[in-house]
Amino acid sequence: REKNLSFLSKKSWHTGTIRHMDKVWKAEQKHESEQKKIQELQKELERERSRKDLLDAKNGGATGSGKESLEWMYRGIMSSSAKTAEQELNKPYIAPDEKEDLTTPSLLQRKPVSATQDDWNKVMEDPLLNIKQQEQDAIKMIAKNPVKMREIMRKLKEQESK
Description:
Layout: H1 2-5, H2 18-58, H3 67-81, H4 85-89, H5 115-124, H6 127-144, H7 146-161
């Protein structure tokens, strides 16, 4: 009777073939890697929840509507525009020699500025931009001076004739 059924091990759908065992092994490995990813994501979610709980505890237990997470974006703008007369009167005295000099570069200033103002300051205080601007100003001055232009044209004609 076993002789009659021995041909079954040669069939493609047989569970004992190497191809089938390889397919099963790969599926098991894939399942294990998915389980590891799920566990890592659960750990990350738990860390985020604990971080949020700590922040809520720090803020007095108030669960915010996301206001505290976006507050940093408006800190520079709102702090300068939201001052009332009472706040102006209650502000500490700053000696004139301790006041900030507005001629210092923005990177050295201590007061917060908006992102657009910061970008503008970085562009305008760029030393390479200043050098390029000075070069262009010098070229414009030479182009406006007819004596210099004649001298340049004469030198060019001499070089072309050589």
